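Deliverable D4.2, example record:
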Amino acid sequence: MVPALVRRSVPKDRFSTFFASQKTQTYYDPASRGPGSHSIRTLAWNPTGHLIATGSVDRTLRIWNPERANVKNSTELRGHTGAVQCVAWNPVKEAELASCSADGTVRIWDVRSKGCVGEVKTGGEGFTLAWHPDGSMLMVGRKDDALLPIRFGSDGPAQASTALPQPVQTNQTTFTHSGKELLLTTGLGTIEVLSYPDLKNLHTLNAHTSSCLSLELCPRGKYLAIGGSDALVSLWDTWEWIPRHGLAAMTGPVRSVSFTFDGAYVCGGGDEGLGIDVAHVDTGEYVHTVPTAHPAACVAWHPARYWLAYSGDPMGLKIVGAGL
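Output generated by the structure prediction step:
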């Protein structure tokens, strides 16, 4: 896998000036089937940052080259018959993408050949995906609060394992960088830290006063960002599992959270309010606001650059920093 070109970190006192100077590129998808039909539900950078995938409610799944915005330079992956709920790249294979859909399937794609190389029926509607760090397993979260592990062999995805019902509403999941723990957001406002692979409870974090909806570990593994339906983003110290900062700039449920490649900055996405507020992680101070004309539910920082991708604009995907 070609390594990403990592840029130097920008100090807190210079970040706003630097990021305000970055141009924004729009990636228009002509596959839109009418006003509002092409709402982007999910987006994700591949491990090197050379590609970004978007999935939409109109079933469109597209792979973009961030440095070439014309749709002619993109690839549409066809096969899902329902809204694309989540996309996630294999962390050790830059060209392998997983997607789950309202059609009750998870599909595995080789974006080089533009083909589906595996399909697993999930037995329900999947809406979250989390790869194990070594790429050997994909955890699917279903809307009926069951987890479905899909393990991979040398010839592609194996049959899904038995579904694992959870005792509470379960939203987004992610593995720790070591792969030894699985983190779950719940409707009770908690984060459940489970051991892997036996999925025994190790810790319960009482994170928010209402449902926890989104989470992400910073690249350094030092902090965990949690987004809640209470419009808050909390930052937790993963060494002691204690809260460090509470970020309260958002006006509605926090649907996504994302760290910069260096773990120095974080932002959240939601379907209410305008603007994307960027906070400095170590101090909890807001340092910049990205102006938006529409709410941006999905946000994702580039894995090696200060490029910020976000959804919400009727014209399509937008990336701050790629418009050079």
